[in-house]
């Protein structure tokens, strides 16, 4: 039978792809770690790592085991935290994935939640939607504010709580031809240079779908993960960008804000694994967000 300690050893090597660094992280001797990995491979009858003098590579079997190991170890940690939570009131830790553009908006809610539940630690990790969904399934995140759940996830693999809806708007340099317009059709963006968000971003998918629906072909001049980078490129006239209205209206480098017709929207949700019962800390957080929509909603 595989023990949790063996899975911890295996995960450390899989993350580091280096036995010496993994041993240092685990604070054990490197020969002992190598022995444990060989023992695990004998138990399972598979090779988990390909070793050479210069590198360590995880095998396909190892990658499959890593997915299970991440989930199992996350479940064990969740059990421990839940028991501590029940033993001493609502306490524990929440690893919360946050979509870029929502962190500042959630600050009020997080401050209010921390004031009411001081024994709950909330760790924020900014990711795109694709990364957050993978983190939820892999046990690396307890909950996440995802922009849009794929249909196969909604209600089956992930439970969710809507956090409102907000329009996406065009930002351009103040000297750009569209800068003086209050609203333009999406089709008017045909042929423009665009600063867009990196693959894996749900907002990127929303923007590209709206452009395709309107028959607008754009040139993606820049791919970025940061709104501030898109704004900087836009401000000097190198490209335009489509961003959430709240982001466009934040203080920063000067840009012109133009509404679009039809108006694309983003509708983030708080998501968590449907098949894993939330512990006291996460249960309290979900209930707090549900009971305080004025703090959580992107439309607030």
Name the descriptors.
300 residues, D-Maltodextrin-Binding Protein, domain 2, Arc Repressor Mutant, subunit A, seven-stranded mixed beta sheet
- Output the radius of gyration: 23 Å
Stretches where pLDDT falls below 50 for ≥5 residues?
none
* CATH homologous superfamily classification of the largest domain: Periplasmic binding protein-like II
* Total separate domains: 3
Number of helices: 11
* Overall CATH class of the largest domain: Alpha Beta
What percent of residues adopt helix (DSSP H or I)? 40-55%
How many individual β-strands? 14
Please outline the major beta sheet: 7 strands, mixed
> Strand-residue fraction?
15-25%
In N-to-C order, the SSE pattern is: HHHEEHEHEHEEEEEHEHEHEEEHH
Structural class label = alpha/beta
**Average pLDDT, all residues:** 87
Characterize the overall form: globular
What's the N-to-C terminus distance? 52 Å
CATH topology of the largest domain: D-Maltodextrin-Binding Protein, domain 2
CATH architecture field of the largest domain:
3-Layer(aba) Sandwich
